[in-house]
Amino acid sequence: MGVRVLGAAVTAALLLAASTATAIWWIARQDARPASDAIVVLGSAQYNGVPSSIFEARLEHARELYDEGVAPVIVTVGGKATGDTFTEAEAGRDYLAQNGVPEDALLAVPEGVDTLESVRAVAAEFADRDWNSAVLVSDPWHAMRAERMAEDAGLDAASSPTRQGPAVQTRTTQLRYILRETAAYLLYRATGESVAGAPGIG
């Protein structure tokens, strides 16, 4: 009986992981662009104020959405690592300002060392401004977890992932990100916590 129970538990865990990975893959292929209060760009690495290639791809996609009239404001979010001069939010805001987005259409929220902290900080800013709806911009594989966290924080969230950048360059890279996100999503659903400090999946 014990072996059967163990086997059933392992099978159930594998099925859960497989179904989650499939859902991440499916949502990564969607692109929702409803008219919203703001476009929210989730932060990624920056180097002395210069966005990394992953972050730049997200920012360029957000600029495209802004130009299409999806929302009147782009919100950049993300704190900084020890020793950094700039936050991710500041680097993102400055990049967009230098590339044609009016300064009064930009809001930097310089908080958050992981996705969960970032979306909670954004939700607080939204509440202060009586905003509710957001289009989230991140990498495709990050979309499902980011959207779930944003909804749990009280936002009416949709996702419009970027299709450019290192996260989508090769199938091997895509598979690695899907596996990481599967683990991160299941951890969040089980514990309500994020995985700060884990490269690529915070």
UniProtKB/TrEMBL annotation:
<dbReference type="Pfam" id="PF02698">
    <property type="entry name" value="DUF218"/>
</dbReference>
<feature type="signal peptide">
    <location>
        <begin position="1"/>
        <end position="23"/>
    </location>
</feature>
<dbReference type="InterPro" id="IPR003848">
    <property type="entry name" value="DUF218"/>
</dbReference>
<dbReference type="InterPro" id="IPR051599">
    <property type="entry name" value="Cell_Envelope_Assoc"/>
</dbReference>
<protein>
    <submittedName>
        <fullName>Membrane protein</fullName>
    </submittedName>
</protein>
<feature type="domain" description="DUF218">
    <location>
        <begin position="37"/>
        <end position="183"/>
    </location>
</feature>
<keyword id="KW-0732">Signal</keyword>
<dbReference type="InterPro" id="IPR014729">
    <property type="entry name" value="Rossmann-like_a/b/a_fold"/>
</dbReference>
<dbReference type="GO" id="GO:0005886">
    <property type="term" value="C:plasma membrane"/>
</dbReference>
